[in-house]
Amino acid sequence: MRRKPKILSFVFLMLLILSLLSGCGAVRTVSNSDDENSLQELAASEITEYEGKDLSSILDFRENSIEGPQEVAIDEYTLTIDGLVDDPMIYSYDEVLDKTHYEKVVTLYCVEGWSATILWEGIRLSDLFEDVNVQDTANTVIFHCYDGYTTSLPLQDILDKDIMIAYKMNDVVLPAERGYPFQLVAEDKLGYKWAKWIVRIELSDDSEYEGFWEQRGYSNEADVTDR
Fold first, then answer.
1. How many CB atoms sit inside 10 A of residue 27's CB?
2. Following DSSP, what letter does each residue of 111-134 receive, concatenated?
């Protein structure tokens, strides 16, 4: 009986550790002062209001990726779209940007309890899908990221909501900490669906596919209303 307090303390400690590792991803704090200075400089250039809506800042995000911010060499970067498609494509960064650009104010909600309302600018996934001729059996889109992270969304959700991959936020090009070169704007989905540093988009018929956090118990639906 005397050992019970120690056991309870150990359980509490383990629960605390697990809570710190949960959220939109494993929490990591940006410690590089150069990175912090770069973000401060970008924040000075970003817009703060759009069509009467107040916008959050680039600085209002927590760094919670699984491997920390990724530095992608843009001259070597490619975006692959494959899987259940008739014509797989490999794009350079500039080739993606040659597509029509769209702007939309969308709020990211993280399961950690914070949110950020941002003006995103990017390319609709539906425009990219037109190039590859998606097969009728595809029902799921899997996003593969530079750091090994994966997540997915139903294909129909993407089409119905005109979901895009963004290359700008608040009128400035995404910094590495925010997903440069492309971040998924997973409207109405919780933050762990907002894939960053996207390098491959796979069309699949696996509607039960589970990404990094989904394999660890997070809802595959990730609806904002569930938070």
1. 15
2. TTS-EEEEEEEEEEHHHHHHHHTB
pLDDT at 84: 98
Pairing of strands 79-83, 198-204: parallel
Encode pLDDT of 96-151 as tens digits.
Answer: 999 999 999 999 999 999 999 999 999 999 999 999 999 999 999 999 999 999 99
Judged on CB neighbours under 10 Å (0-12, 13-18, 19+), 3 is exposed
Q: Which CATH class is domain 4-226?
A: alpha beta
Buried b (16+ CB within 10 A) or exposed e, 162-172: ebbbbbbbbeb
pLDDT band at 42 (very low <50, low <70, confident <90, very high): confident
Residue 127 phi, psi (nearest 5) = -65, -40
Q: Determine the pLDDT at residue 39.
A: 85
- E-strand spans in the chain? 49-50, 53-54, 79-83, 89-91, 102-109, 115-124, 140-145, 150-154, 164-169, 172-173, 183-185, 198-204
Query: Residue 106 and residue 69: Cα distance in Å, rounded?
Result: 22
Query: Domain segments of the chain: what residues?
Result: 4-226
Write the single-letter amino acid at 187.
Answer: E
* Token duo for residue 77: 């970067």
